[in-house]
Each structure stands twice: as C-alpha cells, then as structure tokens.
User: What shape does this take?
Amino acid sequence: MGQRKSGHVTLHDVARACGYSVSTVSIVLSEAPLSQNVAASTRERIRKMARQLGYHPDAFARSLRRRRSQTIGVLAYDLSDPFCTPIVRGIQDGLQPAHFVPLLIDAQTQRKLFDSYLRMILERRAEGVIVIASWIFQETNLLADIEKNHVPIVIVGRDLTGRNISSLLVDNEAGGEMSLRHLRDLGHRHIAVIRGPEELFDSEPRWAGVQRAAAASGVSIDERLVFQLPNLMDSFTGFEGGLAFARQMLASRRPFTAVIAFDDLTALGVVRGLTEAGRRVPQDCSVVGFDDVLPAMVATPSITTIHQPLKEMGLLAAAWTLQAIEAREKGAGKRIQLHQAAPQLVVRESTAPPASKEKSKKQQA
Amino acid sequence: MGQRKSGHVTLHDVARACGYSVSTVSIVLSEAPLSQNVAASTRERIRKMARQLGYHPDAFARSLRRRRSQTIGVLAYDLSDPFCTPIVRGIQDGLQPAHFVPLLIDAQTQRKLFDSYLRMILERRAEGVIVIASWIFQETNLLADIEKNHVPIVIVGRDLTGRNISSLLVDNEAGGEMSLRHLRDLGHRHIAVIRGPEELFDSEPRWAGVQRAAAASGVSIDERLVFQLPNLMDSFTGFEGGLAFARQMLASRRPFTAVIAFDDLTALGVVRGLTEAGRRVPQDCSVVGFDDVLPAMVATPSITTIHQPLKEMGLLAAAWTLQAIEAREKGAGKRIQLHQAAPQLVVRESTAPPASKEKSKKQQA
DNA sequence: AACCAATATTCAAACGTTTGAATCTTGGTG
DNA sequence: CACCAAGATTCAAACGTTTGAATATTGGTT
Assistant: This one.
C-alpha cells in the first residue's frame, strides 16, 4: 500500500502514514540524540507504524549521507581452503559488536579476480580491508590504490610490514621448531622434511625453525631427505605433492622414521603414500603436519600437527582494522603493527616413537 | 589533491579538474548511451583525468540513484562446513558475468545470527537472496519479510517449494539407492546404516532411497543395524556420531560387512571407530559416505561416496536468481522451480567385496 | 503582559550519482 | 540570411537518508 515507486518502504512512506515529518521519523527510527526531545507518545506511534509497514532503512542512502559504509572488505585467497574459514569466522565475530559487516569474497587463487574484486571493494567504500593471503599477494600496485584512498588494510598470513602494512601471522619458525622437537623427543633421528613452495612466505621460516631446532638438539638432517613442493598451488596440490614425495622417498631406499610435512594436506598425502607402500603410520613412520585444519582431525590416523590459532587471528585482524579506522577519524597517524601468533603442538595419532632400535631391518624390507 | 572533504575522489572533483560539467563526466565515465554524442576528444580527456586522480564511482550513490544494488545476499548456514564452499564458489562465478556481487555471510548455525544477518541483507537492498540451508531454516516469519519486499529468493539444500520458494538440491533418494546398490554389487548382505538427524531434510529421502534399493535387490536391512544421528549438529558432530555408532555396533557383536553413513564426516567417524577396534577398511568392512567433500578425498583410505555437484548447483542458483530478478523487472509473475541434481557414485578405497567367509563366497558369483 | 527556557517538531541542504529535458554550438541547406 | 537538424554539453531534479539550524508550542517567571 504505502509503497510508491520503489519496491521498498521508505521514511517518506512512514512519515506520511503517521502524519509526521520525515525528519522526526528519521530521528526516532535512527535513535539520534535528538530523539530524547521527541514526545514518548510520538516515538511509540512512529515505531509502531514503521514496524507495521515493514520499514527497513536503506543502507545506501544512509551510508551516502553518513559517509560511513560500516563495511570491511575481506578478500580470501581461496575460500575452499579449510585454512581460510576459521579466520573468516573470527573476523565476522570481531566485526559484529561494532556493527560492521564483512564484504567477503573469494579470489579463488586467481590474480585477475583478486584485482577486480579489490577494486569492487573500494567502490563499495569499504572502510577497511583485510586480506587473507598467501602467494597471491605479491604486487604492490593495488596497495598503492588503497593507500591513495586512505583505507586501512591488514593482512593475515604474511609479513608485509616491510611494505607498511599491518601483518598478522603465526610464528612459523616456532612452529617448525616444535615439530622437530616433538619428533626428536619421541626418539626419531632420521627425519625427512617437505618444505613449502618457494613462493609461499611461510615456507622459509618453518624450515628455518626446523633447522634451528635440529642444530640445537643435535639432530642432523640429511639433505637428501629434504624436498620442496612446487610453486603453483591450490590447497590440493599439497596433498599430491606429499604423495609424490612419499613415493620418491621410499623409492630412494634411504632410511627415515618420520616426516615433517609443510602442512596438513601434505601430511595426508604422505600418509597415503606410505600406506600404499605398506608402511603403517605411526608404527613404521611418524608424520607431522602444520595448520590444524579439519581434514587432519578427522582422518585416521588423525594427524599430529602444529595448531594455528586461526579464529583468534581473525578476531585480532578485525580489532586492528576497527582501531585503525577510529584512529583515522581522530586524525591520528596510522600505525603499522606486527603480531606473530603462538602456534601450539597438537599431538594426535600420526606420531609415535620409532619402531625398534634395529631400524634398518624392518624399514628396508 | 582534488579531494575536498571526503577521503574519496568524486565526479565533482574530476569535473572541476578538467573543466566539464558533472553530467558530462558522469555520462562518459559510466558509458551511458548518451556518451556517443560526446566528442571523442572530451571523452579521452575525461577518462585520463579520472584515472589520474584515482577516481572510483561511489557504489552507494550509484545504487541509490539507479535503484539497483547489483548485490545478491548469500546466507550460508555454516561456512566452515566443507559442503558450503563449493556452492559459494559456484554462486560467485555465476553472478560475475552479470556484474552482480554476492554479499556472503556465515550464519554459523545460529538462528539468531541468521535472522539478524538476513535483516542486514534486506537493508543493503540485495536484489535477491540465496540461502544455503540445512536445519537452520525452518521458520517462515523471515520469509514473509522477504516476500513483502519482493526480493526473489532461492534455497539450496532443501525443498521448500511447498512454501513457494524455488529450491535446488541433490536427488537424495537416488543417492541413497546408489550407495546401497554399490555395496550390494560388491556382495555385501549385512549392511549397517547411519541415518541423518531427524531435523535435517536430507535424512529422510536418503534413507528412503536405501530402503527402496534394498527392497528392489532383495537385500534385507536388519533394523538393529540402523542408527540415527542426534539433532544438534555442526559439521563435526557427524564425525563424533559415526565414531560412537561404530563402537556401539561392534559392541553389539551383530555381524555386518558394510556401513552406509549419512555423510562423509560420519563415514570418517566410522572408519575411526572400526580402526580403533582393529577392523581394517575396506578389507574387514566397507564404508560409504555422502557429499564428496575434501576430507573424504584426502583421508586414507579415501572414502567411497556419493558426489553432489555442488559447484554446478551454485551456478544454477545464481542463474535462477538473476532470471527471477529480470522477470520481476519485466513485470512477469514469479515462477517457483525445483531441481534435483543428479548425484554420482565415486568409488574410492573404502569399499571392497566382503571378506570371503562362508556365505559371501557363494554370492560373489 | 512581556519574556524566557524548555520541549517538540520541521526546514532545507547535503551526500555522489544518473538522466530526461533543456540549452548552446555548429555547419549545411534552401 | 534565416532556418534546421544534428551534435555537444549542461540543468536540475531525483534517489532516501541525516542533521544543524530554525520554528512553533508550551507553561512558568517576573
């Protein structure tokens, strides 16, 4: 009935329907400070009518006028990677109390999409941007655009403080250390390592951590048992890489009793490869992953891994973004921060002490 | 430099900078039909200046004026469920060519969040809504609101055509049949079944399919080998349920050589339970899942399952929504549709013929 | 009776676009 | 030289809000 041209009920409609001016209605419905001055009876009447007509304020008009979008762009490099979703959830939860909404989109590991969606995010006047990144994010040209528009940006999963961007990631090196130390404590001495792809930021520090812990605890790592995943990678090539390397390792007949895989999917690939060849995990060979994503938890044996506090990282990313926005409003200069979240060793079923002391016997069979 | 009060470059800025009126600049930059009448030289000049200043049209102002948001609200019941993400990807891909953007949010299986986010979607004037649903979506009050605002809506994962909503889901019954027939063809006769939670729409038809195929192929299902998952469920309780039931089945000492699990996570739980008790999959017991999500693929043994064409379903959902929007513009009445996507059996490592004992030996023939 | 301070409500301009209608240039034609 | 049709550009109103300033309505003091 009250609907004029647009399919939506507007302030105007409500005003006309209850005989007050648009201003009054607006003041009441948006609970502006002035609404204290509005007679309680009027308030009641207006509210009732609004409800009755099914009025919802138009976010566009409101944002245009208030110059606030209440939106944070969230750009995930690959939503189907189980790594992303807990972070996203943390972000959403962190934004909600401030009445901000994430504008969440999936770059599907394609640079082209990434770019065009980033532009879209700017056009929708996001007040901040959170990028969940990995290799996809190495160019700076878009950053320049963002900077030009003074939109605060936080990146999770990479350290880009060098390019003046607040960054949030797990302490990869500590995680690497943990995995090696765990295996060492179990008694392993012949440990294979599958490093991450060269392009991926996490690869280097994890490997460094492993090496450091090895040196510190007197374990030497046989170079011939160190592999590296190839570059192009969606969450699935990790699995395939793990599988391929496991086969390769076994074929080389070089003895090893444990594998440190770059991430959980890689670890699962390794398990597959070992199982294929008749090696049992963990009795014949231990495997440890990294990330602690769902598949690692529900596989049998479940994968011992290095847990990343993903949800907490998402929460923090949201908090930083909001606080950067606030700072900008107050005219405060922007402050770039870095946080390395503490990883945590989660011991599950895929690791155990190495078989017996006569290692070669069983393993070469 | 050109930026006045807002942090953003506006049409006005561009106009002033190159000495044309706002209208002209708008016409050129938005490639309106009138822009054919604009001298090529002016066009060039304007474009160049826009680029130089870093102008991006304000989506709010544009949407307000054009009365189009170019946005489809996408409400996922649980983004961290690996079931959701492929659908989301399909939706996003289906929307892109039409220059629509999904406003994607995660209801986290909470009705309260679901409601408040749905309102938010309406306020942001989404031109359509796609709900990826399961149990969470059983009330109609919100639907009424949506209807009132004439926003087309499509639901994927449930049949709500009864409530006048276009629905898109897998043919659960066919899937159920497939899983039973697969096991039967392998020679299994003692098959346990774990049904889905009662509240979940999929549960019933899958079970019906299993029963139908059983009847048709002369396999009888022992009622005492039929279980049902409890109601409250995030994607993880499926796993726990499977594990619990596996233990229970084994404890009952009732013989069975295969398990049909409600979904992949449940299947993985079953595998865990069987393994715990020393039963090998598939040599001692076969397990089949449903959905074909990532964890089923990367586990060892990989899980034989019923594949849902999730991405295609997402694409179709997007197409339907867009076409409903178009129809509404043309004043055509709304048409509600139903599609049951064809599932597909994916044979992997978790199923095999039953161990050849007394009875099964004969039946293999 | 004039004045004041609350209290209650409305005006009108603005946010950044788009677009139908209006205006201003042209050069070409009769 | 008056006239016209394109061709090129601009006017001005609108989209649905918000908000500082203005106005109208009270009853209460001097």
In short: Residues 20-24, 27, 37-39, 42, 61, 63-67 of chain B lie near DNA strand D (CB under 10 Å from a C1'). Confidence is low (pLDDT under 50) at residues 1-5, 358-365 of chain B. Chain B touches chain A through 55 residues (CB under 8 Å).
